[in-house]
Amino acid sequence: MTEIENRMLSDATFQAERAEVLKTWPSGGTVDFDAAVAVQAALPPEKRFALALAEADAEGRTLLQPRAGVALIREHEALLNGLSPYCDVLPTTIDAYTRHNRYAEAQEGIDRSRAAGTSLLNGFPAVNHGVDGCRRLVDALSKPVQVRHGTPDARLLAEITLAAGFSSFEGGGISYNIPYAKHVPLERSIRHWQYCDRLVGRFEEAGIRINREPFGPLTGTLVPPFVSHVVAIVEGLLALEQGVRCLTLGYGQAGNLAQDIAALRSLRRLANHYFLNAGFTDYKLTTVFHQWMGGFPEDEAQATAVICLGALVARQARATKIIVKTPHEAAGVPTLEANQAGLKATRQMVNMISDQNRVDSPDIQTEIDVIEAEVHAVMREILRLGRGDVARGIVQAFASGVMDVPFAPARANLGKLTPVRDNFGAIRLFDAGHVPLPDDVLAFHRDKIAERARAERREPSFNMVVDDVRAISASKLVGRPA
Amino acid sequence: MDEAARSYKIVLGVIGADCHAVGNRILTAVLTRGGIEVVNLGVMVSQEEFIEAAIAEDAGAILVSSIYGHGELDCQNFRARCEERGLGDIVLYVGGNLVIGKQDFATVEARFREMGFDRVFPPSVDLEQVIGLLRADIDARRPMALGHNSGRFVVEARA
């Protein structure tokens, strides 16, 4: 493979690659771009994701979206239609075999699920169901539907689902590699996602606006806001280059109110800053907030409290969309009823916060200042490493640890950066690894951690980090000694 | 062999297409702190990789994690594969969210016991308790080997 660069794929490159992609599983044979455009053009306005986001953004509303996916089409359709009255936009969560292009195993999962009379897969195997199967699903729904997954090479998945009328596609070459894969080289997943973005760009050029959403929360575990912001901004730049024009950038709840509000408010501003500086002006930017992505309490009432804290922050910071968790989170894939319960609790909280005034405090402003300083420092280094090319720069940044995601499984990630909570539960850096943050920012982190260490009368150590990872499922935010 | 010299070496990993890495890191940290030697294979580990590592490392136990719901599919015939490779007596634990959805744990436990796992744990299990069980189970299966011809001796002699 030639060295990665952030440049729009040429038509010839795209078409040659496309012919290969569509051959990787038999269902690829039925994909036709003109037919796909016709399917998208025929969607009524209430089933277009980009429109729902634009309207919510204009009216200052926050959309709710659950996660859901089961093995069989009819069951998945029933599940989504059962969720539809409680949410604004629909998901289709893809199963883990499909995410790793293991379609033969997905087929076995479909067959066994049929035999068992219940889904044995943790999501909807869209590639195996093919364009016709996916279209049957979209036709049976009355709201926009998005593909949500975790796929380093999602080219065939994108071809099939977009041809069937899905109008939003989650993921990115970094955010669907680092937290979701083990052996995939970063330049390869970025290149495969350039294809996905280019496909969306081609729809855009044909007059069809497909929404693209880089995956914000990454590993969902003590991720410092600047880390996920940098990934979101870089994936946004990569998508814009391929012709994507409707972007939703994400952030996963960290737990501390001031830090979470600051993170969401700074995300939009920072993204606009980098997008405008790269010469893009004609894009539509919205945000998505993910309720707590870490370990949940087993008790359903306690889990509901975690969900409500997320809803409060998301609404206070005016996120365009919330990805909603369920009281079954600790037990894995939820039932329809548990999913409805999470949506109802979130809706109640969003409604109660909606009429209230915007909360501002010096604490929030301090967090915004810190996040912005961190993002600028890392972005500067990424652009320096890539000699102005953000694709080249991000690959080198991960290789050298300039970018580092905590708790990530991918070999492409150094894993030296270690976060820990401060005395108020905000996420700080216990070890910055090789991330080039300014000295005053590093001193701020050190002071905040020292404050907690004094309060707990123990030295900061990895034990503190382990306690923090397990804290929320044990009903606290900060992992204090017993 | 005296108590202090006994080693407790285990192979740890997340099975199948599951890439949940956080619990894996926490397990490694807590088990190591508890005096267990952990060979951590990380995420997305196949049955073959577990078994080969257990043979190569002369491990006393295999700890299989699964959090994404495909545990039942991924763990089919695990004990039989161990037996084929001469690991019929190895201590086999499995833990996590092993099936799709919130199911009665006793039913899930019975199903995985039936599949040949010695112990089955929910995600909420107290890890200190797991360490105690692991030591006892490994000791119970330890072959009656004399010090001079044990695998451990060979490794030490080489070092």
From TrEMBL, chain A:
Its EC number is 5.4.99.1. The keyword Isomerase applies. It catalyses: (2S,3S)-3-methyl-L-aspartate = L-glutamate. Keywords: Cobalamin, Cobalt, Isomerase. This is Glutamate mutase epsilon subunit. L-glutamate binds at residues 67, 99, 148-149, 170, 176, 180. The keyword Repeat does not apply. Catalyzes the carbon skeleton rearrangement of L-glutamate to L-threo-3-methylaspartate ((2S,3S)-3-methylaspartate). It is an enzyme of class 5 (isomerase). SUPFAM superfamilies: Cobalamin (vitamin B12)-dependent enzymes (SSF51703). Belongs to the methylaspartate mutase GlmE subunit family. The lineage of its organism: Bacteria, Pseudomonadati, Pseudomonadota, Alphaproteobacteria, Rhodobacterales. GO terms for molecular function: cobalamin binding; methylaspartate mutase activity. Its cofactor is adenosylcob(III)alamin. Pathway: Amino-acid degradation; L-glutamate degradation via mesaconate pathway; acetate and pyruvate from L-glutamate: step 1/4. Adenosylcob(III)alamin binds at residues 69, 122, 179, 296, 325, 329. Heterotetramer composed of 2 epsilon subunits (GlmE) and 2 sigma subunits (GlmS). GlmE exists as a homodimer and GlmS as a monomer. The gene is glmE. CDD domains: Glm_e. One of its GO terms (biological process) is L-glutamate catabolic process via L-citramalate. Pfam families: Met_asp_mut_E. It comes from the Bacteria.
Automatic annotation (TrEMBL), chain B:
One of its GO terms (molecular function) is cobalamin binding. Its EC number is 5.4.99.1. The keyword Isomerase applies. It comes from the Bacteria. Keywords: Cobalamin, Cobalt, Isomerase, Metal-binding. It catalyses: (2S,3S)-3-methyl-L-aspartate = L-glutamate. Its cofactor is adenosylcob(III)alamin. GO terms for biological process: anaerobic L-glutamate catabolic process; L-glutamate catabolic process via L-citramalate. Catalyzes the carbon skeleton rearrangement of L-glutamate to L-threo-3-methylaspartate ((2S,3S)-3-methylaspartate). This is Glutamate mutase sigma subunit. It comes from Gemmobacter lanyuensis.
